[in-house]
Sequence to fold (436 residues):
Amino acid sequence: MTGDEIVALSKQHTLFEWSAQSNVDPIPVARAKGIYFWTPEGQRFTDFNSQLMCVNIGHGDERVVRAIQDQAATLAYANPFMATEPRALLGQKLAEICPGDIDVFFFTNGGAEANENAIKLARWATGRHKILARYRSYHGGTAGSITLTGDPRRWAAEPGIPGVVHVLDPYHGIERGWDSAAQSLAMLEEVIQLEGPNTIAAFILETVTGTNGVLVPPDGYIQGVRELCTKYGILMICDEVMSGFGRTGEWFAINHWGVVPDILTMAKGLTSAYVQLGALGMRRGLAEMFQDKVFYGGLTYNSHPLACAAALATIQVYEEDGLLAKARALGDVMKQLLADLARRHPSVGEVRSIGLFGIVELIRDAKTRQPMAPFNGSSEEMVALGQFFRREGLYTLVRWNSFYTNPPLCITEEQLREGFAVIDRGLEITDRAVRS
Ligand SMILES: Cc1ncc(COP(=O)(O)O)c(C=O)c1O
Fold:
């Protein structure tokens, strides 16, 4: 099929997510390899967002493809009451790479289901019902996870599930900037007291917030959250669906702050999205509860052999290719490239990154720091910038007044610099809109 045929037929019979269908203009994708993907007509794109920040090892890695093929030929499916070799080995491997005593896992189809099960678990374990979550967050599209989500994607699903209370983040947007860790923790403790500590089962947070802005927390914040959770008997759930598996230069972002959460959720980079898989990991003490109590959770595709085999092979690629160390080293290069953009382009209001997880926030006024597009909105300039990237074959996520720099971890320094050279030219569009 031609690209146009694929797009037309997809639009005729399938729905695209989070969009009014008349507004979508998808790129037709035929194949992908490494950091690139191609349309059927052969236009090449550099994947500067690892698709949805998930293809961390890069596209088309033959080691993972072979593992999936072998598993499909041997045992494509066994129901979740059975035990299979890939399930056994993946549990063992995750126990090895997860922080602290997180060493028991429940497998799901993706991140949202991992978070759903995490909050159920927290409620059973504590006998409390409230869940604290943050406004600048995304935790998934299912009933519970979209209620946990703080960003505007939640609005259409309200009232959602009962018992979710949102709190503010240390970050308040490009105009107001950041609270210190101490200020933010004091606000959090106040909310805990006002809600009643004995009613709160868990606090769920993205360790480094993803689609709400690559928000790297100020040092001390994550440790402080851990202390508050321990003080009030609240379980700390870290959603590492996006920040896990090397994206920040560590297996999990939480490792940067030396903290062990009670529950850790993951998906995306777990298989680099070659096959869909999510998981929640829990500390041994929490898992013990289910020795004589029923674990009331189930999915037909729980512990799917194909997905578990893909995850095992993917984790081996991270290890064989030293991708965590690479993300740290190239993360340093990216930090400099981002800083360079900020120095030379008046429309760049702030850049943030950790490892190969990066963002550029654009402003149209240096004094007021008015964003280039409003919260939850777009603008002519942001649309033009997105169109420029597309024309130039650079794929990345442009959202509100920001765009992301999250390439696969297998990118070379030269390829990274090439991507930034396109960005550098594109920013001339937004620079022209800046009021001096
Ligand atoms: C931090 C975070 N949590 C949860 C999810 C939901 O994962 P999924 O789309 O696999 O259900 C996402 C997806 O983008 C995410 O970024």
